[in-house]
Amino acid sequence: MRLTSLSSLLCLAGLVSVPVNAYDDPNIKSIPLRTHSLSPPYLDSDFQSRWFDFGGDTVVRADKYLRLTADRPSQQGWIFSRVPLTATNWQIELEFEIHGAGNLHGDGFALWLTKERATQGPVFGSTDRFEGLGIFFDTYKNNRPGVSFPYVMAMMGDGQTTYDQAHDGKANELAGCSARGLRSAPVPTKARLTYFQDKSLTLELQYKTEDSWTNCFTLNADEANIAIPSVAYLGLSAETGELSDNHDIISLKAENLYSLNRNNNNAGKGSSDGRSKGRDGAKASKEGGSWTWFLFKTIMFFAAIAGAYFGWTIYRTKARSSRF
User: Fold this and answer.
1) Which portions of the sequence form the region Disordered (predicted)?
2) 233: which strand partners?
């Protein structure tokens, strides 16, 4: 079943309230973001998705995968969230499969966090000159000597710069790594992208051994521009040219990360945390005092009513007695 693009719908982002540990640091907890997650059967009972739009050549097989492109030439497909990802610290885990019948294959797929959304184009099936982050899983080597493919790289677009298609993004690369064995791997292939605003961006891959993650890159704010737009849509896209592959998305899981320890380097901000603690403590104390005073006044109010009723009852009884 092929789905055309669904009309955009602005909805409030929903959160599942039960925190789970999704990060290696025990001081970091997470809250799943159902607005930016996908898993079988992918669609609602009316054969639509509440939180995502699908377009191009994307095909949904509810029991198995979202196929961005089939193993046929000249295909493009995409999936984009309907609401932006506004969490400041987050982790995205993607399970995918790249496979096909031929010995030659291409071109690859991309993971997006951009201001633009749901626009088909020449960069792995999505638009060029984007603003935000693109992670490219490139399976076909055009002209990049000394680099083994598949190659995974990050590009931070400024809305003006064109992707260097002829040289597989060499001029645009923020960071990257070779991932031989990523295509048709013997274990589930996954990518895990972790972002702490104004601090770090990390990409890990699973394709060698199950439950074993390989670090592709880790970038710190003092090393590179990793500032993702505050309003960015989460998307996936893929394309094939003369050569082709199946580009299948198995599941997508997004989680909001938060720190249990304000002094944690990955989620805190040094001395400002002390001031935050002071403000938070004062606020909590003020709120606690307000509630105590409100409760006291409520009790006194009802006590006054009870006392008045009791006094009036005694007065009425005495008045009746005096008549006789």
Assistant:
1) 263-285
2) 114
Cα distance between residue 233 and residue 117, in whole Å = 6
DSSP for residue 115: S
Residues 6+ positions from 211 with CB-CB distance below 8 Å: none
Q: Which residues in 235-257 are b (16+ Cβ under 10 Å) and which e? A: bbbbbbeebbbbbbbbbbbbbbb
- The tokens describing 108, both together, are 């690859």
- List strand residue ranges (DSSP E) for the chain, in order: 28-32, 52-56, 59-61, 65-69, 76-81, 89-99, 108-114, 120-123, 126, 131-138, 151-158, 175-178, 189-196, 200-206, 214-220, 233-239, 246-259
> What does the domain layout of the chain look like in residue ranges?
28-268
Q: Which residue(s) pair with 70 in the sheet?
A: none
Q: Which residues of 27-38 are buried (b: 16+ CB within 10 A; e: fewer)?
A: bbbbbbbbbbbb
Q: What percent helix, strand, coil does the chain show, rounded to 5?
A: 20, 35, 45
Counted residue by residue, the chain has a size of: 324
pLDDT, tens only, 74-87: 999 999 999 999 99
296-320, pLDDT tens digit by residue? 677 777 777 777 777 767 766 666 6
- Residue 154, Cβ density class (10 Å: 0-12 exposed, 13-18 middle, ≥19 buried): buried
CATH number for the segment(s) 28-268:
2.60.120.200
